[in-house]
Automatic annotation (TrEMBL):
<keyword id="KW-0597">Phosphoprotein</keyword>
<protein>
    <recommendedName>
        <fullName>Response regulatory domain-containing protein</fullName>
    </recommendedName>
</protein>
<feature type="compositionally biased region" description="Polar residues">
    <location>
        <begin position="1"/>
        <end position="11"/>
    </location>
</feature>
<dbReference type="InterPro" id="IPR001789">
    <property type="entry name" value="Sig_transdc_resp-reg_receiver"/>
</dbReference>
<dbReference type="InterPro" id="IPR011006">
    <property type="entry name" value="CheY-like_superfamily"/>
</dbReference>
<feature type="region of interest" description="Disordered">
    <location>
        <begin position="1"/>
        <end position="22"/>
    </location>
</feature>
<feature type="modified residue" description="4-aspartylphosphate">
    <location>
        <position position="84"/>
    </location>
</feature>
<feature type="domain" description="Response regulatory">
    <location>
        <begin position="29"/>
        <end position="148"/>
    </location>
</feature>
Length: 154
């Protein structure tokens, strides 16, 4: 490899005070929908409290029914939705599309699809992001962090 080595120092750049380089993380409230408690546990464990240095999960609201999701979204106070596309009765993909069409200014949605080939379904559902099963913890955390950064820019 050629080129100049990149500095990886944790010190702030010249002319920037240490206080200015410390930015408060974006705090988000996440609604997690799945009828399967194992899936909900896997998502919460993958994301954790800090999915990225600049993103912090303030709180989780877990829902096991579509009616609970609609109630929570209509009440407000939720910044980001994670919906399981494999949930029984009402899947997260159909629920996402319904929310996007019926709720004004719906929060961004991450859908969990059944397999990588179901990416087109995530597009159809109007979700802002998707992660396929089996869930890769890094991919889930990265997707939540990316959507949370978008929330901060809203």
């Amino acid at each position: 490899m050629t080129g100049t080595p990149q500095s990886t120092s944790s010190r702030p750049a010249a002319g920037v005070s240490p206080e200015a380089s410390k930015v408060a993380p974006t705090a988000v409230r996440v609604l997690l929908y799945s009828d399967n408690i194992t899936t909900r546990d896997a998502v919460r464990a993958a994301v954790g409290r800090r999915p990225a240095r600049d993103v912090e999960v303030e709180s989780w609201l877990e829902c096991a029914t579509a009616a609970a999701v609609f109630s929570a979204v209509e009440e407000g106070g939720v910044d980001l939705l994670v919906l399981d596309g494999e949930a029984a009765k009402v899947g997260g993909l159909g629920l996402c599309r319904q929310l996007k069409l019926e709720v004004y200014n719906s929060p961004p949605v991450l859908v969990l699809t059944g397999r990588p080939q179901d990416g087109w379904l995530a597009t159809w559902s109007m979700a802002e992001g998707s992660v396929p099963h089996p869930l890769d913890p890094i991919a889930v955390a990265d997707a939540v962090a990316d959507l949370a950064r978008g929330v901060a820019r809203r």
